[in-house]
Every structure is written in structure tokens, then in C-alpha cells.
Amino acid sequence: MWQVLVACSACAEETEVLVGDLDDVDREVCPCGYSYVVLSVSAFEPVYAERAPLLELPRPQKLPKAA
Ligand SMILES: [Zn+2]
Known about the structure:
The protein is 0% helix and 31% strand. It is mostly beta strands.
């Protein structure tokens, strides 16, 4: 997927859209009726579920030995 930052060509409204194909950006239109101009494009990978969270293991605590 693609995360595309777009701006309206008429009212300068900026928004981000997620599209599967960059051609889909052409179908996105501003609520004011004008089409968007692409400002920047970045790859978007929805893979949160596949990445195991980094687990922080509890460290064995060194307790001071009682005398
Ligand atoms: Zn607009």
C-alpha cells in the first residue's frame, strides 16, 4: 500500500490517503470538488500483526545477601 500526502488544488486542504495503487489517488477528490495534487508518497506496510512485539525479559535481580 501507499501512504500519499496530497493537497487540494483549490483550497489547499492537505490530507493523507492510503491506497493500494497509486492510480487510485486520482479517484480521491477533495470535499470541495477539486482533485488533489500529490505532495509525497511513502510505502505503507500494514504488518503490525506479523511482527512480534519486543519482549523485555525481567532481569534477575541481585539481592544483597543478608549477613
Ligand atoms: Zn479542496
